[in-house]
TrEMBL record:
Assigned keywords, A-Z: Acyltransferase, Ligase, Transferase
Gene name tied to this protein: lipL
A GO molecular function held by the record: acyltransferase activity
Species lineage: Bacteria, Bacillati, Bacillota, Bacilli, Lactobacillales
Protein name, as recorded: Lipoate-protein ligase A
SUPFAM superfamilies the record matches: Class II aaRS and biotin synthetases
Any GO BP: protein lipoylation
One Pfam family per UniProt: LplA-B_cat
EC numbers for this chain: 2.3.1.-
Length: 249
């Protein structure tokens, strides 16, 4: 397994958009740029924080909903901008209580087999566990099937999902992205995407779109039983990296 600590000798550049939330399209475009930068210069690691206001980021599979355009229009009528990402997963919600961030790393240039797909996910899992270590909470890594955007590397506490991970690999670089529900109305996020799939007639599709149950998702602040903001979590992530010998620029 490839560990995040293998990269700590490389300079880590932080790109923080939390002070000026961008659009989903510009954030996703920046992700593509980071992949190109690391491909051209593998001696760098990038950490990109990109919170978004009232946005639903769809996966490519969501476009296969029988009534996709109606479903997309529903989201727009609810006041959400809609974007489609070119990495894995299904629809997720972003708002002022959700933190999105990405880690862009160089990977084996001469031996592609040295970096497995699972390694990308596990690197992000390790970073989140290290960040939240002081809470004393056990973070489980398993699919929460009735969450939105369910996946093998869902992060949960006491059976309630608070984060999901996706990744994209290009040549000799990998971009690992995560969303974390920190605070706000998680039930409303679930309701929004439940209606999205209903409007898209997901039940008529051969694809198994999620049947979302709000009871299996929660905010990190509720699970940790302490008030927590997106800005505070950003600082906690930076501290965790610094404590693991990363030199943050």
């Amino acid at each position: 397994m490839t560990s995040l600590n293998l990269f700590h000798q490389l300079p880590l550049t932080v790109l923080d958009d939390s002070r000026k939330p961008s659009t989903a399209d510009s954030a996703l475009s920046r992700s593509q740029t980071l992949l190109e930068l690391v491909n051209n210069d593998p001696n760098h690691v990038f950490l990109h924080f990109w919170p978004l206001e009232n946005t639903v980021i769809l996966g490519m599979i969501d476009r296969q909903l029988p009534s996709f355009e109606n479903a997309k229009k529903y989201l727009e009528n609810q006041g959400y901008q809609v974007a489609i990402r070119n990495i894995g997963g299904l629809a997720v919600v972003s708002d002022s209580g959700v933190l999105n961030f990405s880690l862009c790393l160089p990977i084996g240039q001469n031996d592609d087999s040295s970096f497995r797909i699972a390694d990308g996910y596990l690197i992000m899992v390790d970073l989140i566990k290290e960040t939240l270590k002081s809470s004393g909470k056990v973070i489980d890594v398993e699919e929460i099937s009735q969450s939105y955007c369910p996946g093998k590397y869902d992060l949960s506490i006491d059976g309630k999902k608070f984060a999901g991970i996706a990744q994209r690999r290009k040549k000799n670089a990998v971009l690992i992205s995560i969303y974390l529900s920190v605070s706000g109305d998680q039930e409303e996020r679930c309701r929004l995407l439940s209606h999205f799939y209903r409007e898209g007639k997901s039940q008529e599709s051969r694809i198994a779109f999620p049947n979302i149950n709000s009871q299996c998702m929660a905010n990190l602040s509720d699970l940790l039983e302490t008030p927590l903001t997106v800005d505070q979590l950003i600082e906690m992530i930076k501290v965790a990296l610094s404590q693991n010998c990363f030199q943050i620029k």
